[in-house]
Write a structure and sequence with these properties.
Chain lengths: 405, 289
């Protein structure tokens, strides 16, 4: 209606897109008879959701648990309370790197905990290596973990790579097909973004090698909110198995759409988000049989105790994929400090070679990587149970076909 | 196949158009380019979920109540935050720049408050999540409701703007805010009404979105972007334009997803958007000025 609208609206678009720029917040702490632990995590911005589910609650739970027990134990038997220095990286890697630099150079914290996400962990890896801090990169999924572990020898990669998860899933499906439960066709959709691309690139050759036919294979852009068309086509493909390499909004959206349109494949698999505690609510109580990435040994007393403590402290249960591993990495750190103290070189050596007692059982890293992981889980009787690798202790038997919604 | 694409596309487009209605009204009448628009929809979305989960209030009832509260919120926002900007701009283009900057700040303020109140978790409820068959195509009932609300509120708005004296005053302010006072129109009052109705519509959109879509406190920008694209395509401030552009976008995305590749939906959207900006910068339905 006016002449200056286009300029203004374009400016608006630019500003909106620039909403990831910003400031650093936080407070420095005074030195004292405490151990200072610093971390920069996304309190705001697009990564805040992931960090708010998997990373921050576990850091806070762990610090609270340790401090209530009198503090971190040191080799001489003394105990020191943990003091936290926290920065909000506003989901921006530039801010994150600045915050890590500040933690190391200015705040001179004793230990630094990693941020949430693959990209952020890669972004700070060179810096952490330069300052010599051990980096327990838990929430980083990458097939290049062996390379990274070799390049930065104080970095630890604890969530496997896309190929691992894809292969685990193919194993589960192949076993079901060989048993005659499902047909040879798979309908697979994937989000066109980092992790989704990794997974589908790992899955295509694995499906082919196992003799599966990809009856429907489509990608969708990040931010897609309507899945009716995708699922309609997947349903029409005649495949018994539906596989989505998706992020939480997509996993949830597809679940709801599949329910409302009455799409009942024998296998329904979603990726990130499927192991979240809110998933059964999103599936309207019909999550039974849905498969997803991750999983826990739901019968293990350590896991049950961890779930109970997390629920009491945070207000909701943890997710059943990376949460327990995040917590386990912190337990490893505490035990390593107890054995060798705060010297970074000694600490790094202990993390690489030591064996640790954690909520996910006994952990020993191989070449700085945690390989003893669960790849596929399934909702069974209200818990998200790990089903693959099937020969690992605590694995549940997959239920295929999945009951109808 | 064609029928499926058509129906799914129309329903999707309806939800898009509903999202854009409020923004186009706020800009068209109050001249405020509201970058916090997505956050305003989120307030309603969280409000509906909170009322549903804590107090057991039916989302359909919330759909009626939240827009009224939204109108009040918009009224207060305009009076407290936008009015000073309008007053010092003297009817120049400065208001646009100032309002963009001010609402950009408001975006973070609301986002922070939402994070504080509701946390960073993904939020989603299941309500009326069952399929309804339309000409053999299964459509989720909650999306259908959103489509219905879009047609109703959009239609009512178009009718009111074109057929009532109130609408005449609105259009007068939208077209020539400088001369409207000459015929006895209280520009401030009309602009405030336009902004408040826009906020109420944002609440309608947010409340209906919360019934079928997963959202989190940090996702408002996505809604703002989508609404902006539709508003610009339809012609800024043009209500029927936004309706048609929204529907067209839904149809386009669904068509591209079925006939070509689902990976290209976003690319197709922005190709059209770019074409509109290059060749019809006033929007598909905007008048050349």
């Amino acid at each position: 209606m006016t002449t200056f609208t286009r300029r203004a609206t374009l400016g608006a678009l630019l500003l909106t897109a620039a909403s990831s720029l910003a400031l650093t917040a936080g407070t420095a702490q005074a030195e004292g008879e405490t151990i200072t632990i610093g971390y920069a995590v996304a309190r705001t911005g697009p990564s805040a959701t992931g960090a708010g589910i998997t990373t921050i609650p576990n850091y806070e739970l762990w610090v609270d648990t340790v401090n209530k027990a009198g503090g971190l134990k040191l080799p001489d038997g003394s105990q020191k309370m943990i003091e936290v220095v926290e920065y909000d990286d506003r989901s921006s890697n530039e801010d994150l790197v600045r915050a890590i630099e500040r933690l190391a150079a200015q705040d001179k914290v004793d230990l630094i905990l990693p941020p949430w996400g693959t990209g952020p962990n890669l972004a700070i890896a060179p810096l952490m290596a330069r300052f010599g801090y051990p980096q327990l990169a838990v929430t980083a999924v990458t097939d290049k973990a062996p390379e990274f572990a070799a390049r930065w020898d104080r970095s630890y990669w604890m969530l496997g790579g896309g190929h691992d998860y894809a292969k685990g899933l193919v194993d589960v499906l192949a076993a079901a097909r060989d048993a005659g439960t499902i047909n040879n066709k798979v309908a697979v959709v994937s989000v066109a973004d980092g992790f989704g691309i990794d997974l589908i690139n790992g899955a295509r050759p694995a499906f082919e090698a196992a003799g599966f036919e990809l009856a429907y294979d489509a990608t969708y852009p990040l931010g897609t909110s309507d899945f009716a068309t995708l699922l309609n086509d997947a349903q029409g493909s005649g495949a018994d198995s539906f596989v989505a390499f998706s992020y939480p909004p997509g996993s949830f959206g597809m679940t709801k759409t599949a329910q409302s349109m009455g799409y009942n494949p024998k296998v329904f698999y979603v990726s990130v988000g499927g192991a979240f505690p809110i998933y059964p609510g999103i599936a309207d109580g019909n999550a039974e049989g849905v498969m997803a990435i991750g999983g826990v040994d739901a019968d293990s007393p350590a896991i049950q105790d961890y779930f109970a403590r997390h629920t009491a402290f945070v207000g909701n249960p943890p997710d059943s994929w990376a949460s327990a591993i995040t917590y386990a990495s912190l337990e490893m750190l505490a035990q390593a400090v107890e054995r060798v103290g705060l010297d970074h070189a000694a600490l790094a050596a202990e993390l690489s070679n030591g064996t640790f007692e954690t909520v996910i059982g006994e952990v020993k890293l191989e070449d700085n990587q945690l390989r003893d992981l669960w790849w596929v889980g399934q909702w069974q009787g209200g818990a998200f149970r790990a089903v693959n690798p099937g020969d690992k202790a605590g694995a549940a038997t997959p239920v295929i076909p999945k009951p109808e919604w | 196949m064609i029928v499926t694409t058509l129906i799914l596309g129309l329903v999707l487009g309806g939800t898009y158009a509903l999202l854009a209605l409020g923004l186009t009204l706020q800009y068209g009448i109050a001249r405020i380019m509201n970058l916090a628009y997505g956050e305003l929809t989120l307030i309603a979305a969280f409000g509906l979920v909170a009322l549903f989960q804590q107090a057991g209030i039916s989302p359909l009832l919330s759909l009626l109540v939240l827009p009224v509260l939204g109108y009040g919120l918009g009224w207060i926002l305009y009076q407290g935050m936008m009015r000073p900007l309008v007053a010092r701009s003297d009817g120049t283009g400065r208001l646009e720049v100032d309002s963009i900057l001010a609402t950009f700040g408001l975006l973070f303020l609301i986002q922070g408050l939402l994070l504080l109140a509701f946390g960073a978790n993904f939020t989603s409820i299941s309500y009326l999540d069952r399929g309804v068959s339309i000409l053999g195509v299964s459509v989720a009932l909650n999306r259908l409701i959103a489509f219905g609300i879009c047609v109703l509120s959009g239609g009512a708005l178009v009718w009111a703007l074109n057929r009532t004296t109130w609408g005449l005053r609105m259009r007068a302010v939208a077209l020539t805010p400088g001369s409207a006072p000459l015929v006895g129109i209280d520009v401030n009052r009309i602009a405030r009404q336009g902004f408040a109705i826009g906020t109420a519509l944002a609440c309608v959109a947010g409340a209906s979105i919360s019934m079928y879509q997963t959202f989190s406190a940090t996702g408002g920008v996505i809604f703002t972007m989508k609404a902006l694209v539709i508003v610009i395509m339809g012609g800024v401030g043009n209500v029927p334009g936004a309706l048609i552009a929204g529907l067209a976008l839904g149809l386009l995305e669904t068509f591209v997803a079925t006939a070509i590749d689902p990976g290209l939906t976003l690319a197709a959207t922005f190709t059209i958007f770019l074409a509109v900006l290059l060749w019809r910068p006033q929007g598909l339905f905007g008048a050349r000025s």
